[in-house]
Write a structure and sequence with these properties.
Helix content is 4%, strand content 61%. Strands 1-2-3-4 form a 4-stranded antiparallel β-sheet, with no helix packed on it. It has 267 residues and is mainly beta. The chain has 2 domains: 102 residues, Lipocalin (Beta Barrel); 107 residues.
Length: 267
């Protein structure tokens, strides 16, 4: 009798029609591959909710939580303490409306309106205290810079040029952004912690250009050039790193200090 009563109480306590997160599962990794975020969805195309599980490099589960807004994609910081959810709707096309900043435990720290078709580059500072993302809005691009302790917006700025990539300095106090100008011209811009332009340089190249190294103090940086090359040996196209260009921020603006020609696999 007691066993039957206990079973009845458990049945009554269980939520009716408990939500299932089995429509789809997506996995996201931190850039250093130290953390993995597995997200299960109860709906499709941005509907329903999400259940997220965060794992360390050893495979040990760190946390599990549910989110009211399911992410189209998620970014995990290098220390695993912050999760950035890109929320919106998706199907034949993608429309992101909101950036949600979660703690590793799942707590929602902040939410920012950020209309975009997708990110056009993102980065964390070396200590993961600052996060930057470029929002591609079709006819324009907006860069958002957040501090990660509480997810607060430090600054945002809109640009008409196409954003090729961005990189935070080691301290996070400066940001390097590379934009595509007309023809074979690109523009590298250094911005301070308030979004004010400190200097810029025009680079002329037909190759792809990306910001890859930015010193801790934001005084020096590297732009890498790559291009796709066809190999007759295996019949495939391969991305090749063909040049590194070196710059410094001087009193008069940005100066190119040298370059190095290369021909190696681009990663």
């Amino acid at each position: 009798m007691r066993a039957a009563l206990a079973a009845l109480l458990l049945l009554l306590a269980a939520p009716a029609g408990a939500e299932k997160f089995d429509v789809e599962t997506r996995e996201f990794y931190s850039r250093n591959k130290a953390f993995r975020l597995s997200v299960g969805y109860s709906g499709s195309g941005g509907g329903g909710r999400a259940r997220a599980e965060l794992y360390g490099a050893s495979g040990k589960k760190i946390s599990a939580f549910e989110a009211d807004r399911p992410p189209f994609m998620a970014t995990v910081s290098g220390d695993g303490r912050r999760l950035i959810f890109f929320c919106g709707s998706w199907g034949q096309s993608v429309a992101i409306f909101t950036l949600n900043v979660h703690a590793a435990s799942g707590g929602l720290l902040a939410s920012h309106q950020a209309r975009m078709e997708g990110p056009a580059g993102e980065d964390f500072s070396e200590d993961n205290s600052v996060y930057a993302v470029g929002a591609d809005q079709g006819d324009s691009r907006t860069i958002f810079v957040l501090e990660t302790a509480k997810g607060r917006l430090l600054w945002k700025k809109k640009f008409k040029e196409r954003l090729l990539g961005l990189k935070l300095s080691g301290s996070g106090n400066r940001l390097l952004a590379v934009f595509k100008s007309d023809g074979d011209s690109s523009r590298a811009v250094v911005l301070d912690k308030a979004g004010k332009e400190l200097g810029s340089a025009v680079i002329r190249t037909a190759n792809n250009l990306s910001p890859r190294v930015f010193s801790r103090d934001g005084g020096e940086f590297e732009l890498w050039e790559d291009r796709t090359v066809y190999s007759e040996k295996d019949g495939y196209w391969h991305a090749k790193l063909v040049k590194k260009r070196f710059f410094r921020l001087a009193a008069g603006g940005v100066e190119e200090t040298g370059s190095k020609d290369l021909y190696e696999d681009f990663k």
